[in-house]
Design brief:
2 domains; about 450 residues; 22 strands; alpha/beta; Aminopeptidase
Length: about 450
């Protein structure tokens, strides 16, 4: 099969057997999407699948040998899986790094507010999103609350078909003269993103009645919201798109389409000479900050623990290991959308359905905030993909000076690793519901598996 082909789609290049494998993979991916709805739920599902495949917590090991399967759970919101290679860890690792957080709305610390007899949730949006896209959708509330006595309560409202949902109003067009005159970015402000919570009360005020419902169902007092992480996401599960069912619509493709490929790859790849590492990080959408983001020490700490179990406790060994390692930064890329063609430079734009996308650089303007992968590593990755019959393409994030964005690539390059962005191209990135092609999602899995198994 021709792996780099700008004339024929991946589906056209696939054999009938490969098309069936792609469909089976897509079913499993959709199940993951509908289960791993938040970063905490993704963490839980990844660990469940890893333990089923024989992975054990790193702290269960006193020494490490080739073929050992270990994982690191970073505060229930990030995960690392590793399969130990025949070579010492210090000789370098094959790392695929993806993220499991997504753009969403977070409830504020004191979220319950009443206006004219209507109770709302006050929210703060998370990540780079277009606020006007979040109105007039059915919404779910998912997360955790810790009560005054330290008891954890898991909350999920809107996911079950019999659950109520939440909803953010927009202005009716009959009264929209002033709104229509505003810039699109100003028509809906952040403080207007307030989901409807309730209206019924036998008292003068409605808020106490809503708080009483929360107390009866979950045992939550208003003060408990101060120690909670509650997220608003679309109450819509994944669906096939198109008469040919060639695409998938879902919340959270960015970056669960790469994360699932990463997970499936490390669970099915043959153990190799190099230690294989699958990183699933939190907080990428807000700059990889916090102690569950890649800017923190948890990933180098994990590598240091691996080295210690192989007899190397000095920091110099950690630095050598990172310099010897190679990374695919598995994050999504923008696919050319003909409806918005003016935002793309067509010659260098990725296309929906043409394979996993290699992005030499992301960043903005003059490559600011970019990793800018070196030609030597790109050459190695091309050879790996071509040898393994992985469909691939090149891409960039729109026209020069049009905008831009970043990934974890530059952070991991700071550790000395060779890194290139390698992710699934998609439409409607960061929207409440996003689109990927099944063939691209499957190509991502093939790419990450081939990379893990390479020498």
């Amino acid at each position: 099969m021709k792996t780099f082909d700008r004339e024929n789609s991946v589906w056209a290049r696939f054999s009938e057997e490969q098309r069936l494998e792609m469909e089976e993979y897509s079913k499993k991916y959709r199940h993951f999407l509908d289960t791993a709805r938040t970063e905490r739920l993704a963490n839980k599902e990844i660990i469940r699948q890893a333990e089923t495949a024989g992975f054990k917590p790193l702290h269960d090991y006193a020494t490490l040998k080739a073929g050992d399967k270990v994982y690191w759970n970073q505060k229930g919101k990030s995960v690392i899986l590793a399969v130990i290679g025949t070579e010492p860890v210090a000789q370098g690792m094959k790392i695929v790094g993806s993220h499991i957080d997504c753009p969403r709305l977070d409830l504020k610390a004191m979220p319950v507010a009443e206006k004219n007899g209507i109770v709302y949730f006050k929210t703060h949006y998370y990540g780079g999103l277009l606020k006007y896209q979040w109105v007039c959708l059915p919404l779910s509330l998912i997360g955790v609350v810790y009560t005054a006595d330290g008891r954890r309560i898991d909350v999920s409202i809107g996911e079950d078909p019999d659950d109520p949902v939440f909803f953010i109003n927009d202005l009716l067009p009959h009264l929209g003269k002033d709104q229509a005159a505003k810039k699109l970015s100003e028509a809906i402000s952040g403080e207007m993103l307030m989901p409807l919570v309730g209206t019924n009360s036998e008292e003068e005020k409605t808020k106490p009645a809503v708080l009483e419902l929360l107390k009866k169902k979950y045992g939550i007092e208003e003060e408990d919201f101060a120690s909670a992480e509650l997220e608003i996401i679309p109450a819509i599960k994944s669906r096939d798109v198109g008469l040919d069912r060639s695409m998938i619509m879902s919340h959270g493709h960015d970056d669960r389409v790469c994360s699932y490929g990463n997970l499936a790859a490390i669970l099915t790849a043959h153990a190799g000479t190099k230690t294989q590492v699958a990183l699933f990080a939190d907080k990428e959408e807000i700059g990889s900050v916090g102690n569950t983001g890649v800017h923190s020490a948890f990933f180098p700490d994990f590598v240091a623990e691996l080295l210690a179990l192989q007899g190397h406790t000095e920091e110099l060994w950690l630095r050598r290991t990172m310099r010897n390692s190679q990374v695919l930064s598995a994050d999504v890329c923008a696919a050319l959308d003909p409806v918005f063609a003016d935002a793309y430079e067509e010659t260098n734009a990725a296309r929906l359905g043409y394979g996993i996308c290699l992005c030499k650089y992301t960043g903005a303007r003059g490559k600011a905030g970019s990793n800018d992968a070196n030609a030597e590593f790109l050459s190695q990755v091309r050879q790996i993909f071509n040898a393994a019959d992985v469909p691939w393409q090149i891409g960039e994030l729109g026209k020069v000076d049009q905008g831009g964005g970043g990934t974890i690539a530059y952070i991991m390059a700071d550790w000395g690793c060779d890194v290139v962005d390698c992710g699934v191209a998609m439409h409607s990135m960061h929207a409440p519901l996003e689109i990927v092609a099944k063939s691209d999602a499957y190509s991502g899995y093939l790419a990450y598996k081939a990379f893990f198994e390479s020498k």
